[in-house]
Design a protein that fits this description.
Length: 645
């Protein structure tokens, strides 16, 4: 078979409650306790930050003095000395900032260590390696974000202190011009902080939910199409896109206020200083002081405020979300709601064939040799067909055409009387590929995924029993047990996928080597269960002779030539089929005296065949080891093949 996708994705359905977006009263108190326990580090941080205050002070004061006492009085040497003092101040400030980083590390690393310790001990206790790796990643986010927050908020406080002190030292009237808009901007920002943080959180949760959804969906696109779940997946993903869009809009509305606070607190003072220049000069404010004030606003206050607004506005809420999750050891695991699945097929007048190909031709490229050419094949509802052929003969291509994954270049295909491709046809078939799609949710959610309705527990258990999943279900801990796809063997995943398909309303089941990892007995049980679905049709791309024997009809594919008939008939008529049967591992030979199937032709005359059956236009009554089909119409015959090789 061609490669198939195994998606281990999970369907995250995070709600604010689950995600910890509601207030967690313990968190601020714990944060305060953490800081108080590190008073010495905090003191060191303050001490080094004071150097930054001094640097800020000099950024405005130095140039002001250089102008007023130096350059404007024709004393360039004095001006240069003041500029040199300013430069020295900047150097000392930079040295202080480097020490600040070390102090911040001393504050942040213990937080990280403590969080890692908690996360790891929880992971060791629960043995939940997947959640452990997710949580440690969140710890790193928390560490980086916390460090960023400490830096920007500290920087704003000490820069603002230095700038305000400088303005006062230069000329107190300058404070009257710069102070009120700065205070108004900071007040507006403070007022928007909480609502903005809530919206930021909502956005983050919506963003993660969408990313989780896409992470789960994208690797399984082929399987989703194969199982006809496109509409459901599109609806689920669409909801998440909408949720993120709504969250982004709400965030943007509040973001406008954030920009306004920056404009009022950081940019308005520049305009006011320029506009009030005559008034200030008239009150004895010197030119140098005016230039110094402009330097404070443009070089210190505005950048510090901008960092605060962006840093606290974005990182603050991110940190809150992450810390809450870590505090609750909650990574937002999914609730994994079962999807609406496939709609029940519309009841139709009469019973259309399970599928029908009319002059179907398909090639993978315009210049390629067709894999399927001019094929007419009609399979009555309720049949059991095995598709066999050497590797590369086109078996998967045929199932993909019937499933609507590929479109024929010529001819038409219908499933359940509905044209392929189309939603009705998609709802009438389920394709189970070789690589089974199992997702990280409960077993019940995995099994009921293709059902639009709530599936009673008894039905799930009955399906598990029929397909052969029951022992695994018991071992996993029942229907409510969480399934870790990576912890299942390939065969176990196939059993889960088969049971899911068994429970779906799609009457046509296409098993594209979907049982290749099962042992022969389990494979037989699963195939028989599918064949016995009332009104169900089973198409199996067979990889064992036993599969072909069990099926009422066999389609032999070999490039562009095909042969169609019962097992015995094909043994007589198809050299390729004889070769294939010979090359398959021989099972214990059946005694010819023990008929596997008895055939009753259309006139009610019984005929006896060996393993398998033969002949068009016959009804089949099964008994004996191969004939344990239970459902009426299980091996109903009547398939027709327009083109035989
Ligand atoms: N996506 C593709 N693009 C181009 N050629 C393809 C593609 N998929 C299959 N083919 C070719 O089409 C032919 C039929 O492939 P297909 O997978 O249907 O065969 P198969 O009978 O299912 O083989 P197997 O038993 O090995 O899985 C092969 O020659 C294969 O190389």
């Amino acid at each position: 078979m061609t490669g198939r996708i195994r998606a281990h994705g999970r369907r995250g359905h995070e709600t604010p409650g689950q995600d910890g977006t509601h207030a967690d009263a313990g968190l601020p108190a714990r944060g305060l306790r953490f800081l108080l326990a590190r008073r010495r580090v905090l003191l060191r941080l303050v001490a080094w930050s004071v150097l930054e205050t001094g640097q800020t002070f000099l950024i405005g004061y130095g140039p002001a003095r250089a102008l007023d006492e130096g350059f404007l009085r024709g004393r360039a040497d004095v001006g240069l000395i003041w500029l040199a003092v300013t430069g020295l101040g900047v150097l000392v400030g930079a040295w202080g900032t480097a020490r600040v980083y070390a102090a911040v590390a001393a504050l942040v690393e213990p937080l990280r260590d403590r969080l890692v310790e908690r996360v790891v001990s929880r992971g060791v206790r629960t043995g939940d390696a997947g959640s452990l790796s997710g949580l440690t990643q969140q710890v790193e986010i928390a560490r980086d974000t916390f460090a960023g927050l400490v830096m920007v908020s500290r920087s704003f406080v000490f820069t603002a202190a230095g700038a305000l002190a400088g303005l006062f030292a230069l000329a107190p009237p300058l404070l009257l011009v710069v102070g009120p808009p700065l205070a108004a901007g900071v007040a507006l920002f403070a007022a928007t902080l909480r609502p903005l943080a809530r919206r930021q959180e909502t956005f983050l949760v919506a963003d993660e939910a969408l990313a989780g959804e896409l992470g789960a969906v994208c690797p399984g696109l082929r399987d989703i199409t194969a199982t006809g779940a496109e509409a459901h997946i599109a609806a689920g993903t669409g909801e998440r896109v909408e949720a993120e869009l709504r969250a982004a809009r709400a965030l943007a509305h509040w973001g406008v206020l954030r920009v306004a606070s920056l404009a009022i607190g950081g940019q308005l003072p520049i305009v006011l200083l320029l506009a009030a220049a005559p008034w200030l000069l008239a009150r004895g404010v010197t030119t140098g002081a005016l230039v110094g004030a402009l330097a404070y606003v443009t070089q210190s206050l505005l950048p510090a405020l901008r960092n605060l607004v962006h840093g606290l506005g974005t990182s603050g809420s991110r940190l809150t979300v992450v810390l809450r999750r870590l505090a609750r050891a909650d990574t937002g695991m999914p609730t994994g709601q079962p999807g609406p699945g496939l709609p029940a097929p519309e009841p139709t007048e009469g019973t259309p064939p399970a599928f029908s190909l009319t002059s179907a031709t398909f090639a993978y490229g315009p210049a390629s040799t067709p894999v399927v050419q001019d094929l007419d094949l009609t399979l009555p509802a309720g049949s059991h067909l095995a598709v066999v052929g050497p590797s590369g003969a086109g078996k998967s291509t045929l199932t993909a055409l019937v499933a609507g994954l590929l479109a024929p270049d010529q001819g038409t295909i219908t499933v359940g009387g509905h044209t392929v491709p189309g939603p009705e046809a998609a709802a009438a078939r389920v394709l189970i590929p070789q690589e089974a799609y199992v997702f990280d949710a409960t077993l019940a959610e995995n099994l009921a995924y293709l059902r639009p309705d709530a599936v009673p527990e008894e039905e799930l258990l009955a399906a598990a029993e029929a397909v052969g999943l029951a022992p695994l279900a018991e071992r996993l801990g029942g229907l409510g047990a969480r399934v870790d796809p990576a912890a299942l063997s390939a065969g176990e995943r196939q059993l889960v996928a088969l049971t899911r398909a068994y429970l779906s309303y799609a009457p046509l089941a296409l098993l594209d080597e979907a049982t290749c990892h099962l042992d022969p007995e389990t494979e037989e049980r699963a195939e028989r269960a599918f064949a016995a679905r009332p009104g169900g049709t089973l198409v199996v791309v067979a990889h064992r002779i036993s599969s072909a024997r069990r099926a009422g009809r066999v389609l032999v594919m070999d490039g562009r030539s095909t042969a169609y008939g019962g097992h015995e008939e094909l043994l007589r008529t198809s050299a390729l089929y004889r070769d294939l049967v010979g090359s398959w591992a021989p099972g214990p030979s059946r005694r010819r005296s023990e008929p596997a199937l008895s055939l009753r032709d259309a006139d009610g005359v019984d005929a006896v065949a060996g393993p398998g059956l033969a002949g068009d236009g016959r009804h089949v009554v099964a008994h004996g080891p191969v004939g344990q089909m239970q459902a009426p119409g299980d091996l109903r015959d009547g398939g027709s093949l327009g083109r035989e090789g």
